[in-house]
Amino acid sequence: QVQLVESGGGSVQAGGSLRLSCVASGYSYIRLHMGWFRQAPGKEREGVAAIISHGGITRYADSVSGRFTISKDNAKNTLYLQMNSLKPEDTAMYYCAADGPFGLSPRYNYWGQGTQVTVSS
């Protein structure tokens, strides 16, 4: 069983930055592919960024490429999402996910509770 707890969400003006964190426990964290997803009201959950277990390979949605950076600190069992140049369309609940096929498809077995990001214009 893997437990995931996100933090770092909040409200920010367009052009600002936020860093999300996700602390994992209950499994050998280093073995897991992980990802960040988001879901806005009335929309489907979409993949934002993914990172392979050892951290050497990442993948991003076109909408965030060049603005967001995913990383993981295996020593701290923590996944990060650095979000820069935020736009109002980035407003959503952001979820951390673990233990699934590497990529942006939501086929992960474990999910956090989410952290809200709100970007005002």
Notes on the protein architecture:
This protein has 121 residues and is an all-beta fold. The chain has strands at residues 3-7, 10-13, 18-25, 34-39, 46-51, 58-60, 68-73, 78-83, 92-98, 110-111, 115-120.
Order of helices and strands: EEEEEEEEEEE
* Low-confidence runs of at least 5 consecutive residues: none
Structural class: mainly beta
Distance between the amino and carboxyl termini: 40 Å
Key words describing this protein structure:
7-stranded mixed β-sheet; 4-stranded antiparallel β-sheet; mainly beta; 121 residues; globular; 49% strand
Quick rundown:
The protein is mainly β and 121 residues long. Helix content is 0%, strand content 49%.
Secondary structure: elements and pairs:
Blueprint: E1 3-7, E2 10-13, E3 18-25, E4 34-39, E5 46-51, E6 58-60, E7 68-73, E8 78-83, E9 92-98, E10 110-111, E11 115-120
Parallel strand pairs: 2-11
Antiparallel strand pairs: 1-3, 3-8, 4-5, 4-9, 5-6, 7-8, 9-10, 9-11
